[in-house]
Structure prediction request, 424 residues.
Amino acid sequence: MSFRVVRQSKFRHVYGQGRKRDECYDGIRITKSSWDSSFCVANPKFIAVITEAAGGGAFLVIPISKTGRLDRDYPLVSGHKGPVLDFAWCPFNDDVIASGSEDCTVKVWQIPENWPHRPNLEEPVVTLMAHQRRVGLIVWHPTANNVLLSAGADCVVYIWNVGTGEALVEINCHPDLVFSASWNYNGSKLVTTCKDKKIRVIDPRTGEILQEGKGHDGAKPQKAVYMKDGNIFTTGFSRMSERQYSLRKEDKLNEPLVQDELDNSNAILWPFYDPDTSMIYLCGKGDCTIRYFEVTDEYPYVHFINAFQSSDPQRGMGWMPKRGVDVNINEIARFFKVHTKGLCEPVSMTVPRKVTARFVPLCRCMPRRRHVVAMPMSSSTSERACSCVCSRNSSRTTCFRTRPATFRRSPPRSGSKAPTPTQC
Prediction:
């Protein structure tokens, strides 16, 4: 009788690796705010980090290629009158970023092409004003351009049309502070967590509550993420202040499919979900580890894979979209770990390959196996050198190969015929 001892998975051996010091971003004056935010966001072109600035709120925008130590007078994006609490890059334009602040406003910025330049960027493209208290949550719509969600301490959620600067929908169904908000895969639904310990599934067009259920029992903030299959993944705390995660169906929020405890730390967990690989990464402010799980249809549904550990605690964490990872090295995710000492360290999650060298067929025709020529190709170039001279005609494909001169053990005898091309 045969049975499986180890669960089969393509991502069972995923490992994390931090970059060297010269490949990091140093000299960042990270903010001292105690707000529940990741303090760092990234896209394939820039990374942004909230900094400590006098006279208002500001954040840094650093090109991905500009590694090393920053200048002391590095330009800032400073237009808020209060500290910046949350921000997010637009998924449709890598030069557009939205920020929310304690000055009760949401500002949308256009990063110029020649960034960084002097002086600071202080004029936003548009300012969205409707909140009566500080704005602490910014989320872009995943499938509709120029649609932005903001939530503030006034317990109101607004959905904006950034192009016109007007509020499309006002959602007033939350009795207390909104901790998190997440769109589903196609942007037709919205899930939120609130300080009243409830999880709500909302119709974003009308603001109507579609489903409502009890979340985690702890009083500390809890997060919720909509998954690709319609399930909802949540993180929170128990009554004994133990950190928990759970997986729920959107129509049965009161009955978790699985709920498990992690540890007794008091750090809030940030869930980062990758819909392409169905993996969840859990990071906590003040932790030194990044735990990652794979979510499947088999019980217990959420499978622990491994954890990336380091010696330095993380002050913030940025998440690179999938279109910004390096697929040539089998990278499936990349984080930007913000240290308390002002260092931003990229951390790559990689699937190991069986063969270290990458082999590509050099012959352009459809040859037989004995004529296949495979050579390792460097990731920095796409040039291919082939000793074959392929000629194609309308009737068949022919490949003519001659033996290289370096393989001849002795020069040809006088009067002998030259080697003739062979036909595939």
